[in-house]
Design brief:
The protein is an alpha+beta fold. The chain has two domains: 2-73 and 101-181 and 272-350, 3-Layer(bba) Sandwich (FAD/NAD(P)-binding domain), CATH 3.50.50.60; 184-271 and 356-390, D-Amino Acid Oxidase, subunit A, domain 2 (D-Amino Acid Oxidase, Chain A, domain 2, 2-Layer Sandwich), CATH 3.30.9. The protein is 35% helix and 29% strand. The longest helix has 28 residues, at 326-353. It is globular and about 65 Å long. Bound molecules: adenosine-5-diphosphoribose (APR) and P-hydroxybenzoic acid.
Length: 396
């Protein structure tokens, strides 16, 4: 068994864990990242791809923006499509010039890994049997197996950045946390296709057949989603069926055309909203999906993770710099204010855009149609959507 020591032990090399490690290194705080998957697996995992205005700024300000600025696509608006008609939400015009950047989450992860390794960071991939202990002591520890040997990492602090299915959250005794959980009666079937996007801006479409989203990754790569039943199976979805369903849901009265092409990646993701409160126990701090998840409709998951780790890095900088723990003590309450704003926004976008087949579906579907009509015809309604979508600079 070998024993090592670090200031901050970080569990998980997703966007939250890697960004935390990067932010800490910029202020001279040492960390070690452990990840149970392989580097290839983590970098290939296709996830959402919309960066809020402030996430873009953060990446640039911390020296991670070079490729994103070159390859990411800056968007000033989105389209809401329903009843066969297109309605543009002028994100920039309604928010004093703020924008979103379309740049795949796995590209953010690749940029982070490259930079951390160039800076000499330690990231252990493929670890197993991770166990946390001593969170209420001054020296919490992480035990794990790596390359066949037992390791003990003694830390000042532990950051649980291990996503929704990680072990960190479960290390907080149930009596010390409250959870909020919401399931949706649908899932998203997502595809990546090598075909130029049929649109310059993202299209969120509501149709009697269900929701559809047209997003993109590059001038040659389209990303599209369909609302499906959560128990549906990819085997039921041939390429032809996927494209014809997308065609049906995006159809407009003026004959808008969706271009199809080879599908290179596909998957079905259930939708769920979840929050754990508090996001801290002793010297364990949760950040990102380990503490909260949102349905992808509002594109908030990655952005919330970035906000959490920025707050945690600031709090740790204050601790090591001046010995003051006020930011660490306020970390959970501070993050949860933004988490709940994003929870509401993601839930709101989801219920407005999806078709409900539930017993109360006929009522919900009419409410959703009315809400869409309001949002696309009222400056107040459109501004509410726009300012949440690009990301609120401050949360009341
Ligand atoms: N030990 C070590 N690593 C673990 C463990 C474990 N026991 N369990 C999970 N992990 C790893 C996962 O393999 C993953 O690489 O933790 C990482 C968590 O990364 P993400 O799931 O990407 O979560 P996070 O970094 O919080 O990023 C949030 O990711 O899920 C999306 O949409 C979400 O955009 C959001 C973003
Ligand atoms: C994506 O591009 O993958 C994407 C975009 C917007 C969303 C969700 C996913 O709301």
């Amino acid at each position: 068994m070998s024993k090592s020591r670090t200031q901050v032990g970080i569990i998980g090399a997703g966007p939250a864990g890697l960004m935390l490690s990067h932010l800490l290194s910029l202020v001279g705080i040492e960390s070690i990242v452990i990840e149970n998957r392989s580097r290839d697996y983590v970098e290939a995992r296709v996830r959402a791809g919309v960066l809020e205005n402030d996430t873009r700024e953060l990446l640039i300000a911390t020296g991670l923006g070079e490729r994103m600025v070159r390859e990411g696509l800056v968007h000033h608006g989105i389209e809401l499509r329903f009843d066969g008609r297109a309605h543009r939400i002028d994100l920039s015009g309604l928010t004093g010039g703020r924008t979103v950047t379309v740049y795949g989450q796995q590209e953010v992860v690749r940029d982070l890994v490259d930079r951390r390794l160039a800076d000499g960071a330690t990231i252990h991939y493929g670890v197993e049997d991770v166990v946390l202990s001593g969170m209420e002591s001054d020296l919490p520890t992480i035990q794990y197996r790596h390359n066949g040997s037992d390791e003990v990492l003694v830390c000042d602090y532990i950051a649980g950045c291990d996503g929704f299915h990680g072990i960190s959250r479960e290390a907080i005794p149930e009596s010390a946390r409250k959870t909020y959980d919401w399931h949706y009666p649908f899932a998203w079937l997502g595809i990546l296709a090598t075909v130029p996007p049929s649109t310059d801006e993202l299209i969120y479409a509501r149709h009697d057949r269900g929701f559809a989203l047209h997003s993109l990754r590059s001038p040659e790569l389209s990303r599209l989603y369909l609302q499906v039943d959560p128990n549906d199976d990819l085997a039921n979805w041939s390429d032809d069926r996927i494209w014809s369903e997308l065609q049906a849901r995006f159809a407009t009265r003026d004959g808008w055309q969706l271009h199809d092409g080879p599908i290179i990646e596909r998957g079905i993701t259930p939708m769920r909203s979840f929050v754990t409160d508090p996001m801290q126990f002793g010297r364990l701090f949760l950040a990102g999906d380990s503490a909260h998840i949102v349905p992808p409709t509002g594109a908030k998951g990655l952005n919330l993770a970035m906000h959490d780790v920025r707050a945690l890095a600031d709090a740790l900088e204050r601790h090591y710099g001046s010995g003051a723990d006020d930011l660490l003590e306020g970390y959970s309450a501070h993050c949860l204010r933004r988490v709940w704003r994003a929870q509401h926004f993601s839930w709101w976008m989801t219920q407005m855009l999806h078709r409900f087949d539930t017993a109360d579906g006929s009522y919900r579907n009419e409410l959703a149609r009315s809400e869409l009509a309001y949002v696309t015809s009222s400056a107040a309604g459109a501004t509410m959507l726009a300012e949440n979508y690009v990301g609120l600079a401050t949360i009341g």
